Automatic annotation (TrEMBL):
PROSITE patterns: PHOSPHOTRIESTERASE_2 (PS51347). This is N-acetyltaurine hydrolase. The lineage of its organism: Eukaryota, Metazoa, Chordata, Craniata, Vertebrata. Keywords: Hydrolase, Metal-binding. Its cofactor is a divalent metal cation. Pfam families: PTE (PF02126). Belongs to the metallo-dependent hydrolases superfamily. Phosphotriesterase family. Binds 2 divalent metal cations per subunit. It comes from Electrophorus electricus. The keyword Transport does not apply. GO terms for molecular function: hydrolase activity; zinc ion binding.
Amino acid sequence: MTESEGETKFSASIAAMLSLTGKVLTVLGPVEPEQLGRTMTHEHLTLTFECCYCPPATGEEAAALAPIELKNLHWLQQNPYSHHENLLLCQETNAVRDELLRYRKAGGGTIVENTTTGISRDLPVLQQLAKDTGVHIVAGAGYYVDVTHSDETKKMMVEELTDIIINEVLHGADGTDIRCGVIGEIGTSWPITESEKKVLRAAAHAQTQLGCPVIIHPGRNPAAPGEVVRVLQEAGGDISKTVMSHLDRTILDRGELLEFAKLGSYLEYDLFGTEVLNYAFNLVVDMPSDSQRVQTLAFLIKEGYEDRMLISHDIHTKNRLTKYGGHGYSHILRNIVPKMLSRGISQNQVDKILIDNPKNWLTFK
Ligand SMILES: CCC(=O)NCCS(=O)(=O)O
C-alpha cells in the first residue's frame, strides 16, 4: 500500500467510525436503535458446529447415523452433538427463513447472529435472510474457540488480530462489504488458551477504538466468566458494553452468580429451549430447565440486575428448529414471556430484557 493509499484508508475508517456513533450496525447497514424492537441477542442462523462433535455412547452408534425423523427426535434432543448431520445448520436456510417470518409474526424485530470465524460465518446468507424477512440481523466479528483457530490465526500478534476485527466492523468481513455490528461470540475454553487470550485482547482493543458491543462464549467452568472479564479489563475493554453468554450452564451457584454480576457485564441466559439430562460438554453440570431459568431471572431482578439481563435460545443445531420438532426462534416470545409474567416479572421488566437492554448494548458509543 502506498502512503497516499494508506492515508485514504485511514480517512475512510475515521469517517466509518464517526457514522456509527449512536447507531446499531446490521447486515443491511446502520439503523436507529429504536427500530430494533424485541431482540434475541444470541442466535445462529447458519453455521457448522462439527468442531464440537461428541462421539455417541457405546451401543448408540446406530442412532447417531440414523436420518433425522420423528422416531429419533427424543434421542436427538438428548444427544444433539453426537449426530453429524444435526450439526449442519448451514443446510437449513429455507427452514430458517420460515422461522424468521414466524418470529416477526410473534413480535420479534432483531436477531444477533453470533457466528464468528471458525464455525462458517456466512454473511451473504445473513444479508439475504434480512432482506427476505424484514428481521434486523446483526452479525458477529472475531473468532470462535481455540480448536477452530487456524495455524495462521494462532501465529498472529494481537495488533494483527485487532486490525482484522476492526476491518470486519468498519469495512466488511470474509471478502464482502457486509459489516459486523458486534464483536463475538468470542470463543474461550477452560482454561483459556494463549491464542484465545490474544483474541480477547484484540477484541478489547478493537472495542476501545470502535465503542462497539462485545459478546463472549466462556469456557465451561464457574471461574471462566470472571477470568475472561479480567483479561478484557487488563486490555482496556469496556465491561459495561460486554455480554457474558451461556450463564445457564456456567455459574449455577447463586452466591457465585452474584459475585460475577458485580463485575458489571450483561448477564445472558441464552439456552432457553435446551432441556437435556446429560450435558455432553460438562457432565458434572445439571442443565437447568426453562422453569429454573425463569426462576433465576426473577432472582437477578430481585437483586437489582434488571438493566443488565439478556435472554435468547442460541439455536445452533437442526433439532431445535420447528421443522425438526424443536422450539424455534419464537419460543421465548410465545412461551417464556407468559411464564415470566406468571412468575411475578412485570411487563416493564420483560420489555427491559427484550427491548431496552439489547438496544443499549448494541448501540455504538
Ligand atoms: C456456536 C454455538 C455455541 O457455542 N453454543 C454454546 C453451546 S454450550 O457451550 O453452551 O453448550
